[in-house]
Design goal:
Blueprint lengths: L7 H9 L11 E9 L5 E10 L2 E9 L4 E3 L1 E4 L39 E3 L4 E8 L3 H8 L6 E5 L16 E6 L1 E2 L1
Antiparallel strand pairs: 1-2, 1-10, 2-3, 3-7, 4-6, 5-8, 8-9
The protein binds copper (II) ion and zinc ion.
Length: about 180
């Protein structure tokens, strides 16, 4: 019962779903990550792209426990098993507080929760704050960036982590 990874064609179709005009098509890839469990099993991907003057991320996961999971960009591009604490805290180049529902929020790395269905799969797309050039510089700073999936939902308020529990999967973001 090895989880099936989405094919790149499926990911592309997913990334393009909902596009209604050519202007919505990605101009340029920014980067990507393969997201893996502590045992090294890959469970999905994150694709970063520039769409017009917006940077976006599209995540597809397969083989994750059903339910709602917090997911963030973390400030260090290191995914050391088993607990992934090597990824450190949330990506926060503008020195903000955590959570889209908090006053003064949110961190650059705060993403909407990803919902995993009964089959163990789920997808998420989100826009990132800042210009695509800023996002590139923040993602690919000296220590890099990781994307981390958590066991529990992010409450969008609790600083600095969103109270989303253990880190269950992690991927280092690599330049396109
Ligand atoms: Cu996180
Ligand atoms: Zn945060």
């Amino acid at each position: 019962m090895s989880p099936r990874l989405p094919t790149s064609a499926a990911l592309l179709a997913f990334a393009l779903a909902g596009c209604t005009t050519m202007a919505d098509l990605p101009d340029r890839r920014i980067g990507s990550a393969t997201i893996s469990l502590p045992n090294g099993q890959p469970v999905g991907t994150a694709q970063f792209a520039q769409v017009g003057n917006t940077a976006t991320v599209a995540v597809a996961l397969t083989g994750i426990a059903p339910g709602t999971h917090g997911i963030h960009l973390h400030t260090t591009g290191a995914c050391a098993a088993p607990d992934f604490t090597s990824a450190a805290g949330h990506l926060n180049p503008l020195d903000r507080k955590h959570g889209s529902a908090a006053p003064g929020g949110k961190h650059e790395g705060d993403l909407p929760n990803i919902v995993i269905g009964s089959g163990g799969s789920g997808t998420l797309t989100a826009d990132l704050m800042g210009t695509p050039d800023q996002v590139r510089s923040w993602l690919f700073d000296a220590d890099g960036t990781a994307i981390v999936v958590h066991a529990a939902p992010d409450d969008y308020v609790t600083d600095p982590s969103g109270n989303s529990g253990a880190r269950i999967a992690c991927g280092v973001v690599k330049p396109a």
